[in-house]
């Protein structure tokens, strides 16, 4: 078996230790004589994994006690609809900051449901290369929340600090940088993320929600779309994505074993530096339009001087076992996604490849 | 490793062949050097599995060409909300037949969203022991659909034939008996099912929808809740539950190899007969309130003469490797779930155990 270096933007690389454990116990889990894929979500064995997963996330991430953690289905995209449904009442509004494709989708989904306000957009010719300055963001008066996307996977930008609006909580899509660095939860009312980048496989969505927002959320929704019901049922209102939660449990234990969030944050900074240093040393060859202080530590994007070189870069990378670096069709170029599971050694291979590639072709 | 005989109501037993294949390739799938858990849902490898899974289901189940197949997240429970959202327009209504807990939940969810009509309920003292006769069902005039639940997992009842209402299509939750027998699709506008009983692990939801209903479905919904958008994107509007789809692919291939739907149907009839025969031979001991012509071929439910015997039955069963037969808390008693993956030999073990148990304790 030869494993590749996987830099897909998500679903993405998982820790090999988590995969090996899952493989070993796939036919007989915890001596139940069953696969985890076959066991009731109401069994004591699954219930223990479910609750442990929530506890691990709370502890590793430092989530304060006045927040609830939900493990749902439907991806961040379903949250684009559930957040306004649950949090915006009659006659109320919320503000949206658009910094990329997914935050635009969140804005569009909310707009089909409620009267919301575009507080800021960084779009230029359909693209986004920066995080806005605080003074560019104009909240609508009385906003029940301000929505933003902490890391823009497609364009490779990331908020380095978050605005604080006092009474107006942030509702933040952290799909592509959750658990990648320490977070001060104070400005946040709600944080959500698809698991398939930093937490586990596709099919699980994490929602971290402040309890007062649950309490004051809208009544009269179908149960499956109601935070109030889902929190009261500890995410087990219906059958969850059991295997996804089980894998997330293993990924969180791996994070803990590695040294927790402090280690992860430091490693992510070092990884990003390895790649951005090569870009900065070769600014004519590795062209990045992303503003330096908006650079993502999760998705490093850049372009090459020609389409031929771009194709050659992707092909040469493949011969060195580097997979998944083709940029998103709407951004073009190269994107190297360096989520938590990609360690320093893997990223060093890419950085050395980039250096050699510019030497040969620059 | 010792595998048990798993009669859980769902998530439920999977074919050992499917589990072994998944285990073998969990670290390196199709020589990609990646796990299927790590690969992009936009990769050609995953796309092939996704499309093949839909094709397999269409062919094995005999789904006519004028239906689309969606592979979604959120369980049947999310469909309880999506169906009325998409299919009931302003001033329109739909009729609901309530024959168990889940059909009641479907009715309640729809009622939060639209003005719908209860066409029939078989509830007596909070329980359901029968499928209604055609003359008991009173459709509201102009109903855009009639909703029913083909198999009631908790109480152990099942529709043996379906009503046909001409212009009014059936919208049917088949979570617990999808792909268990041949189906004439003509009366159905929409069929949906959580995968975790007959199709694969939890986390995938199948929706089979007639294309004219997609075309005429409501506008102005968030994309993630719109059948129109989801069909146009071939269920890949956002990241799907990739691993669930991959496992469903393996389960469908197993069905095909076994002899397809004809084999499955025949085996399911034989399996059910093995258990109902023991019940009928010992009607004072294995007490079933379910009307004979409403008996489920998927979930065989019965009670015992005392709580002590009930406890003893579950404990003795466990010593013979029989797991998951405790009835749902709202129905009590015993429930033996004999979905497709449980073969005749497994069910024969239960039937023989039941015979011995009544000999010893009757």
Query: What is the average per-residue confidence, as pLDDT of chain A, rounded to a whole number?
Result: 97
CATH level-4 homologous superfamily of the largest domain in chain A: Type I PLP-dependent aspartate aminotransferase-like (Major domain)
Major sheet summary line of chain A? 7 strands, mixed
Q: End-to-end distance of chain A, in Å?
A: 35 Å
The largest beta-sheet of chain A arranges its strands as: 2-10-9-8-5-3-4
Explained architecture:
- Chain A is of the alpha/beta class.
- The first copy, chain A, has 2 domains: 16-257, Type I PLP-dependent aspartate aminotransferase-like (Major domain) (Aspartate Aminotransferase, domain 2); 260-361, Aspartate Aminotransferase, domain 1.
- Chain A has 10 helices and 13 strands.
- Chain A has helices spanning 16-24, 44-61, 75-87, 101-113, 211-215, 227-232, 242-258, 260-281, 307-319, 344-361; strands spanning 5-6, 67-72, 93-98, 117-121, 143-149, 151-152, 157-158, 170-173, 188-194, 205-210, 299-302, 322-323, 334-337.
- In chain A, strands 2-10-9-8-5-3-4 form a 7-stranded mixed β-sheet, with helices on both faces.
- In chain A, α7 (242-258) packs across α8 and α9 packs across α10.
- The longest helix of chain A is centred in the C-terminal third of the chain and has 22 residues, at 260-281.
- The first copy, chain A, is globular.
- The model of chain A has no long low-confidence stretch (mean pLDDT 97).
- At the A-B interface, α1, α3, α4 and α7 of A face α1, α3, α4 and α7 of B.
């Amino acid at each position: 078996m030869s494993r590749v270096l996987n830099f897909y933007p998500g679903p993405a690389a998982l820790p090999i230790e988590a995969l090996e454990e899952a493989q070993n116990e796939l036919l007989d889990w915890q001596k139940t004589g069953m696969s985890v894929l076959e066991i009731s979500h109401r069994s004591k064995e699954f219930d223990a994994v479910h609750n442990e997963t929530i506890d691990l996330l709370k502890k590793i991430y430092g989530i304060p006690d006045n927040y609830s953690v939900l493990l749902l289905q439907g991806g961040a995209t379903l949250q684009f609809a559930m957040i306004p449904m649950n949090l915006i009442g009659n006659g109320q509004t919320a503000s949206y900051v658009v910094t990329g494709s997914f935050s635009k989708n969140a804005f569009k989904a909310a707009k089909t449901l409620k009267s919301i306000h575009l507080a800021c957009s960084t779009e230029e010719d359909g693209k986004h290369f920066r995080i806005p300055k605080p003074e560019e963001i104009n909240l609508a008066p009385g906003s029940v929340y301000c929505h933003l996307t902490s890391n823009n996977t497609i364009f490779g930008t990331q908020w380095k600090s978050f605005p604080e609006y006092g009474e107006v909580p942030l509702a933040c899509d952290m799909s592509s940088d959750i658990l990648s660095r320490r977070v001060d939860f104070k400005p946040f009312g709600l944080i959500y993320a698809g698991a398939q980048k930093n937490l586990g496989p596709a099919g699980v969505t994490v929602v971290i929600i402040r309890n007062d927002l649950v309490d004051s959320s809208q009544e009269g929704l179908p149960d499956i779309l109601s935070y109030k019901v889902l929190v009261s049922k500890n995410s087990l209102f219906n059958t969850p994505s059991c295997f996804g939660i089980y894998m997330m449990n293993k990924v969180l234990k791996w994070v803990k074993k590695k040294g927790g969030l402090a280690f992860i944050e430091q490693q992510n900074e070092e990884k990003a530096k390895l790649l951005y240093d090569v870009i900065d040393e070769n600014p004519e060859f590795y062209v990045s339009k992303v503003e330096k202080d908006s650079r993502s530590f999760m998705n490093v994007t850049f372009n090459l001087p020609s389409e031929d070189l771009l194709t050659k870069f992707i092909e040469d990378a493949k011969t060195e076992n580097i997979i998944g670096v083709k940029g998103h069709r709407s951004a073009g170029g190269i994107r190297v996604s360096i989520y938590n599971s990609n360690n320093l050694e893997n990223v060093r291979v890419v950085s050395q490849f980039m250096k050699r590639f510019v030497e040969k072709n620059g």
